[in-house]
Design brief:
Elements (H helix, E strand, L loop, with lengths): L15 E3 L5 H11 L7 E3 L18 E8 L12 H15 L3 E12 L27 E7 L7 E7 L13 E5 L6 E5 L2 E4 L9 E10 L2
Antiparallel strand pairs: 1-8, 2-3, 3-4, 4-10, 5-8, 5-10, 6-7, 6-9
Length: about 220
């Protein structure tokens, strides 16, 4: 299966959803690893350090994270004994989609918990994973792999990093949302504004968030 990472923006967002890319045995192994109560999570006060909290629908929340790979600060050295779980997903993409991956910049696991009084119309902090103003020519893609079934959508916005126009002229708005589904993943340009949201009906929302360098 050939995946076009520069997919036409039919709904104003570059977004590809892929199911059954990762083998079902690996899906279960990844699930059991990150859903284990003994997994070492680290607490963060916010999900992203940006500045869109003035928007009515943005209500950032705490998040638990675990960094697996960070090639910027530690090139070539996995930061976690669980890095092999990320490598399974990356290898599955290479083998089953022919996505032209030439490097892994960052992988971390993220866990969100339910928040008291949360409104489903809200989302966490809009952000980009890569400050690159080349729009669809950006040679980094983000992958969100859903570890478990949950609610707490991934939310996409109408803007890219560095897009011209003030907030009054070109306000940030939601264009589409994706519900987590165990074993599936989404892929999009890393300079696209997006956000997470915490679960309401489920106890945990766990994902692997990856930034991959690709060739064009």
């Amino acid at each position: 299966m050939q995946v076009d990472i520069q997919k036409v923006e039919a709904d104003e967002t570059t977004f590809i959803r892929l199911d059954e890319v990762v083998h079902k045995d690996d899906v279960e192994k990844i699930h059991d690893t990150f859903m284990d109560c003994q997994f070492p999570w680290h607490y963060n006060d916010v999900t992203a350090k940006d500045s869109e909290l003035g928007l009515d629908f943005v209500k950032d929340t705490p998040q638990f994270t675990h960094t697996l790979i960070d090639s910027i600060s530690n090139p070539g050295v996995p930061l976690s004994m669980y890095a092999s779980m990320a490598e399974v997903v990356v290898d599955s993409l290479k083998q089953n989609t022919q996505t032209p991956i030439i490097g892994v910049e960052r992988v971390k696991a993220n866990m969100l918990l339910p928040q008291y009084g949360w409104n489903r119309s809200w989302c966490n902090m809009p952000h980009v994973d890569k400050n690159d103003d080349r729009k669809s020519d950006c040679n980094f893609v983000s992958v969100v792999y859903y570890v478990n079934d949950s609610d707490g959508d991934t939310v996409f916005f109408n803007k890219w990093y560095g897009q011209e126009g003030t907030d009054d002229e070109f306000p940030l708005r939601i264009v589409t949302q994706v519900r987590p589904r165990k074993g599936s993943l989404i892929m999009f340009n890393s300079n696209r504004y997006h956000a997470s949201s915490p679960p309401v009906d489920f106890q945990r929302r766990v994902v692997l968030n990856m930034v991959l360098k690709v060739g064009h």
